[in-house]
Design goal:
The structure holds two protein chains of two kinds. By secondary structure, chain A is of the alpha+beta class. In chain A, 51% of the residues lie in helices and 21% in strands. Chain A contains 27 helices and 27 strands. Chain A has an eight-stranded mixed β-barrel, surrounded by five helices. In chain A, a hairpin with a 3-residue loop joins β6 (191-198) and β7 (202-208). In chain A, α1 packs antiparallel against α8, α2 (73-81) packs antiparallel against α3 (84-97) and α19 (647-658) runs parallel beside α21 (678-691). The relative contact order of chain A is 0.05. By secondary structure, chain B is an all-beta fold. Chain B has strands at residues 17-25, 35-40, 55-56, 58-60, 63-65, 68-72, 75-78, 87-91, 98-102, 111-113, 117-123, 130-136, 141-143, 149-155, 158-165, 178-182, 187-194. In chain B, the strands form five sheets. A five-stranded mixed beta sheet of chain B has the order 6-12-11-8-9, with no helix packed on it. A four-stranded antiparallel beta sheet of chain B has the order 13-2-15-16, with no helix packed on it. In chain B, strands 14-1-17 form a three-stranded mixed beta sheet, with no helix packed on it. Chain B is globular and about 50 Å long. Mean pLDDT of chain B is 83; it is low at 1-12 and 209-213. The chains are: A alpha+beta, B mainly beta. Chain A binds chain B through residues 71, 73, 76-77, 80, 137, 139, 160-163, 165, and chain B through 88, 90, 92, 97, 120-124, 127, 129-130, 198, 200, 213.
Chain lengths: 810, 213
């Protein structure tokens, strides 16, 4: 229901206080009311007692007066005289003396002889015989009686002359005035009502101080209360009974009254008369109204104060809590820098301090992590990621200044060997030392980084290619002295690659890549350093995608074999052709082998190519053979093919499959590819020779071969590299070299093919030197099969030895 | 109390019948001051009122002495004041209404009680003083002594109605009447059991502070 903590706090607070106040108020109110009512009841009882006593005293006084009256001799004489008129006048007279309202002269026969209340002198019986009897017994009798509907305090006394000769009954009426007087007796403004009971009418009202409008209700009230009493008692009993009376609450005309019912002494067997004492609660409570009012006011203001106080306290609590919540939110967002401002000295302040130290901790950790993310753990140098950033920032900076810088990659030779030999611990120490040494060459503007496991990079600012050599020299000099680790001296060689900004690229990525390529080039060429040369960059994204295209191309049949004939100089015929792969790329168009063969060799795709070439060549050759043409085919193999032990088996399988005589197949292998791993090469070649096919050593003269290997090679043919042949007619050195080569080959029992014959003169020279075959543009360029067959059929060069059927079939 | 012997003063024959009476209350206790009277049926046996003997009602020590004075009708009763203070004797009884102021030591003319009945005497000055004069038609009566006994003799032969009366007799006296026939020199016993009203008033002078009742 309540979302905010502040609201919850305030509401809880206020509710609690409200409950407490409510309980207090109710308790006080009830206690007060009870108190008031109890007080009134007590007062009522007290007043009732007073009232009772008053009535009794009044009666006693009356009886005393009456007795004095009746003692009067003249009175007695008059009564004894006997005549009515006299007695009536006497009693009236003497009654007036004592302020009696009614006087009766009663004979000893209980006949009312004279009665001041009646004008007619009927001889009625005195209705209250019991009073006579009591008077006879005790000398007097007093009672409350109702006579002719009026209420009297009545006394009966004997007229002693000297023995009772008659009875005098004297009554003082309790009328409105008398009742009002009675009312005055009490300190409370009591209302007094007298009611009489008779069987016929129930309770009837005789006299009351209440408003006449209330009269009708009184009988009913009396009825309910009278159940408690047993009216009609003697004096003694009345006292006892009276003490047992309990004031009760009654309702009269919608108001509450505390009511006390008082039984009055009446003659036995006469209708009971009771007095009803009532006190309106309203008045009593009235004096407490102000108290209640103040109580309510206090409660209300207390509640109000509580609400206000609660809000303030709530705020006092929730405000710091909110500050902390905000701080927590900031932390979540990753902001650890902004401390929590909470200056309290209490728990919340303590929490804020904890938050702050937590944030500091996290911030510290973050720093550490960031540092670790950007630095090499071992050397403490920036790592590759950081270096890239630095390079990039230099690029961004240099863009404005047009300053130059270079990126140098320092690769440690054979680090893995060192690790394997001396252990990784030594290796790590070595790296650290190298890092330290490299740092010596740095200027303030330079940056050294550990680029990879075995490479460092340096950014040399404000530099051009012109002083690149000196830098690399100075770096190399660092590695002249061995590194001392524990008790070992380790010699370290490095290869350095360098790229320049803005010459070689304008992003750190490109610059680094090119530095790496440069380093690789240095490695390949056996140099100690190299600056990036675009021409030597055989790496390009283009090339990478090319490889996947190659696979696709193979599948799609984009590859074709072109055939270049070899002219048999001696026999003046064409019996050999070299199969050359050509790629008709769907988007790039015609792609010469140089564009994809080297890359294929590097990636290993060459195998697929070679296999394809082999298969196609064998197939084509077998076709020729089947057609009656004695053609032999030469296929180029890569170094990778050469290293494959499976190769001989594959070729044999193909030969069998296409039913080609192994003799018809020549495998051309470059000298340098053999020299990559001569021992393995020899093994494979031997196996190939065993199949029966021929081996041709290509690019002879350009590799690092030694005579020793040449001796061992199971070769049949030697192919002179075109670099020697193409300018043969002009170059004297080439003539000598070529002649020597031919002689050498012949002396080893090898046939010689000269590649790159471009003019007649070259051919003539070759012929003069005894070269066996010639291949080149002068004879023919490589041709697709249809054209080749055509050429074969029609060319001068091949006229010899071509069956007519073949010609006819074209 | 002494029994009073009645002496016949007339030339009537000597009557020898005697009646012994006793009066008891309902608790069988003897009742003193009770008067038993015999009323002869023969009117001749009633003397004339003038023959009634005199009687005296003393006021002595603020009391009427005797308390109960039975007299024959026609008797003349004197009221000597033997106290040293004034008494104001009165009676409102229908049989005789009178009042006499009697100074100390004085005595006024005796009063003749010519009607039978009960006369209650009071003193206006002294409320407690109470005495009775019981005026009877018949001369044949006596008052009981402390032992509740009396004796009446010299009664002529006749049929008598025997009555009893006491000042505090409750109820009608007639209901106690008995019939008695007397014959020469017979001695008869009569007894009465009567109920008495409570003695509610003091008859002796009170101490200074006390009330009468």
């Amino acid at each position: 229901m309540f979302k905010s903590f502040q609201a919850k706090l305030v509401v809880t607070f206020v509710t609690l206080i409200a409950i407490v106040q409510l309980i207090t108020f109710v308790a006080v109110y009830n206690a007060t009311s009870y108190n008031v009512v109890t007080q009134i009841k007590d007062q009522l009882l007290y007043t009732g007692g007073t009232f009772n006593r008053h009535l009794t005293e009044q009666a006693q006084r009356l009886s005393e007066s009456t007795r004095i009256l009746t003692s009067d001799f003249a009175f007695r004489e008059a009564i004894a005289a006997g005549d009515r008129a006299t007695s009536l006048s006497v009693i009236r007279n003497h009654g007036a003396r004592i302020k009696a309202d009614r006087v009766m002269l009663i004979s000893l026969d209980n006949i009312i002889v004279s009665d001041t209340g009646r004008s007619e002198q009927a001889n009625a019986m005195f209705p209250f015989e019991q009073l006579i009897n009591t008077a006879d017994e005790n000398g007097f009798a007093q009672s409350i009686i109702v006579l002719d509907g009026a209420l009297y305090e009545f006394v009966v006394v004997p007229v002693l002359a000297p023995v009772p000769i008659a009875w005098i009954g004297i009554g003082v009426q309790i009328d409105d005035a008398a009742v009002s007087n009675l009312k005055m007796l009490s300190p409370l403004a009591l209302d007094i009502s007298f009611l009489q009971y008779d069987r016929l009418h129930g309770w009837t009202l005789l006299v009351s101080t209440l408003e006449p409008t209330l009269y009708p209700e009184l009988p009913a009230i009396t009825q309910s209360l009278a159940a408690q009493t047993k009216p009609n008692t003697t004096n003694a009993n009345a006292e006892k009974l009276w003490r047992k009376m309990e004031p009760t609450n009654t309702r009269l005309a919608g108001n509450d009254y505390v009511t006390l019912i008082m039984p009055l002494v009446t003659p036995e067997k006469n209708p009971p008369v009771i007095a009803l004492l009532q006190y309106p609660l309203e008045i009593a409570m009235g004096s407490y109204r102000p108290l209640l009012f103040w109580l309510i006011l206090l409660a209300a203001s207390g509640l109000l104060l509580t609400i206000i106080g609660g809000v303030f306290i709530g705020r006092g609590v929730t405000k710091p809590v909110r500050t902390l919540v905000d701080a927590a939110y900031r932390i979540e967002q990753g902001n650890y820098k902004q401390p929590v401002e909470l200056k309290q000295k209490d728990e919340l302040g303590h929490l804020a301090d904890t938050f702050n130290s937590m944030m500091e901790g996290i911030s510290g950790h973050e720093e550490k992590i960031r540092y670790q993310a950007h630095h090499d753990a071992l050397t403490g140098l920036p790592n590759r990621l950081q270096f890239e950033h630095i390079v990039q920032s230099h690029i961004d900076k240099e863009n404005n200044n047009q300053e130059r810088f270079c990126v140098i990659l320092v690769s440690i030779d054979r680090l893995q060997d060192i690790n394997n030999t001396l252990g990784h611990q030594v290796g790590d120490q070595l790296i650290q030392l190298i890092g330290k040494r490299l740092q010596l060459t740095l200027k303030d503007t330079d940056t050294l980084a550990r680029f990879s496991n075995d490479a460092f990079t340096i950014l040399v600012a404000q530099n051009g290619a012109d002083i690149s050599a000196s830098i690399t020299e100075s770096i190399h000099r660092l590695f002249e002295k061995p590194f001392a680790i524990e008790d070992i001296n380790v010699d370290v060689n490095v290869k350095i690659g360098m790229s320049l900004f803005p010459d070689h690229g304008n992003t750190s990525n490109i610059l680094l890549r090119k530095a790496d390529i440069a380093m690789y080039t240095a490695q390949q060429e056996g140099q100690r350093y190299a600056v990036y040369d675009a021409e030597k960059d055989t790496y390009s994204r283009d090339r990478l995608s090319l490889m996947s295209e190659l696979k696709l191309g193979l599948k799609n049949g984009d590859f074709q074999l072109y055939y270049q004939p070899k002219f048999d100089i001696i026999n003046k015929q064409v019996t050999h052709a070299e199969a050359l792969i050509r790629w008709i790329h769907p988007t790039r168009g015609f792609m010469p082998p140089d564009d994809f063969i080297p890359l294929a060799e590097q990636t290993g795709h060459i195998k697929k190519l070679s296999l394809w070439v082999l298969e196609q060549s064998i197939l084509q050759c077998s076709e020729w053979q089947k057609s009656g043409i004695d053609m032999h085919i030469s296929v180029n193999l890569s170094v990778k093919d050469l290293m494959s032990q499976k190769l001989p088996a594959i070729i044999r399988q193909l030969l069998i499959q296409y039913q080609l005589d192994p003799e018809c197949l020549v495998l051309e292998i470059t000298e340098s590819s053999i020299m990559q791993d001569p021992d393995v090469a020899l093994e494979v070649l031997a196996k190939l020779r065993n199949i029966g096919l021929k081996i041709s050593i290509d690019d002879f003269g350009t590799g690092y071969s030694s005579m020793e290997y040449l001796k061992k090679l199971p070769a049949n043919i030697l192919k002179v590299d075109k670099s020697f042949v193409m300018k043969l007619s002009q170059n004297q050195d080439d003539k000598i070299i070529v002649r020597s080569m031919i002689q050498l080959a012949h002396s080893l029992g090898l046939k010689v093919v000269a590649e790159g014959v471009e003019d007649e003169e070259s051919l003539n020279i070759l012929t003069g030197n005894g070269c066996d075959y010639a291949q080149g543009y002068f004879i023919s360029r490589p041709l697709p099969i249809e054209e080749f067959n055509q050429w074969l059929a029609t060319s001068e060069w091949s006229k010899l030895g071509i069956p007519d059927s073949f010609v006819a079939s074209l | 109390m002494i029994s009073i012997m009645l002496v016949a003063a007339s030339p009537l024959p000597i009557y020898a019948a005697t009646v012994n009476g006793v009066v008891l209350d309902e608790q069988d206790k003897p009742v003193a001051d009770a008067v038993i009277s015999l009323l002869p049926q023969n009117r001749d046996h009633l003397p004339s009122p003038t023959a009634a003997p005199d009687a005296t009602m003393d006021q002595w020590q603020k009391q009427f002495i005797p308390y109960n004075l039975p007299v024959q009708v026609g008797a003349s009763v004197s009221f000597p004041n033997r106290d040293n203070l004034k008494h104001h004797v009165y009676s409102f009884s229908p049989a005789k209404k009178f009042e006499i102021k009697l100074y100390s030591g004085s005595m006024t003319k005796p009063i003749v009680f010519d009607k039978p009945g009960v006369i209650a005497l009071g003193c206006n000055i002294h409320d407690w003083m109470l005495g009775y004069i019981y005026v009877l038609e018949t001369p044949y009566f006596a008052k009981t002594d402390d032992s509740g006994k009396l004796s009446i003799d010299n009664l002529p032969d006749d049929d008598y109605v025997v009555s009893v009366w006491h000042p505090r007799l409750s109820g009608q006296p007639e209901k106690h009447d008995q019939k008695l026939s007397l014959k020469e020199q017979s001695i008869s016993d009569v007894s009465f059991t009567i109920s008495l009203k409570r003695e509610r008033r003091r008859r002796s002078p009170p101490d200074f502070e006390e009330e009468v009742y």
